[in-house]
Amino acid sequence: MTRLDRSALPDLVARLTRGERAALARAITLVESRRGDHQALARELIQAVLPRTGGAIRVGITGVPGVGKSTTIDTLGSNLTAAGHKVAVLAVDPSSQRSGGSILGDKTRMARLAVDENAFIRPSPSSGTLGGVAAKTRETMLLCEAAGFDVILVETVGVGQSETAVADLTDFFLVLMLPGAGDELQGIKKGIVEMADMIAVNKADGDGAARAKAAAAEYHAALHILAPASPTWSPPVITISGLANVGLDELWRKIVEHRERMTATGELQQKRRAQEVKWMWAMVEDRLHARLHADPQVRKRVPALEAEVAAGTLAATVAADEIASMLGL
Predict the structure, then answer these.
(1) A single Gene Ontology molecular function, please (predicted)?
(2) Are residues 202 and 68 in the same domain?
(3) What is this structure's pTM?
(4) Residue 275 to residues 44, 51, 168, 230: CA-CA distances in angstroms?
């Protein structure tokens, strides 16, 4: 990115909060930079815009590959922008190693939102630990809110723990499922279902409509054996078609209803406060991880320690103590 010093921050903040897309893009590039001076400026930037954040509806969306996440997000997002919302789509993808992330793929799969002036699509950073990628996604979310986006859709692109990371970023966690519940039901991770605020069975159009309805009934029965995360909300199960734009109005109504209920009881603010504390510790751990891999003394010594531990001549605990002591821990 071009040179940016502290004196230029007030102008960047002003342009960002006016909703200038170029300023938003520059701000996101700043928070994603690994340079120490950029990271210091990014922290000041986030602090400066913090009072203008928190107003958006934050929705996390997950589902197995092929379930239709991108098609559903493209259609839902287009519905929302047509209704007057400003929609940002962010991704958490710890598995991506391609330079620049997967922005080209995201824009290809979300053709309408990609050219919508009231929408903004941003991939996750191209590499890093899950904690680091998700932390940058969180900061990007705050910048989008400061720029006036009132709906943030966070998609899990990777696998494994990325679902938990996205649930910790958002207010509402939507799990998309495929029709034909029989086999899929056995493959659902219990933890993901426990995190779900709603299950939507996608591809409920044409020949798939009846199978989607049957699948929804099975998922609904499965949810009954789990205790809901909130006494205020029992996760509904609905059928949708992202491709045919069927059921997405109901899906959005449920998300809004959830927000209204959770706001009324104070649970939404409580959840967000807990998330902030969790992210504070996630960032501390990420910085320790970065320091561990950047320290020249550690990098020089680690290969020998690894070899000794692998050979069984040095206990792992002793090696760990030596590395920790080099870091002053």
Answers:
(1) kinase activity
(2) yes
(3) 0.86
(4) 20, 17, 6, 16
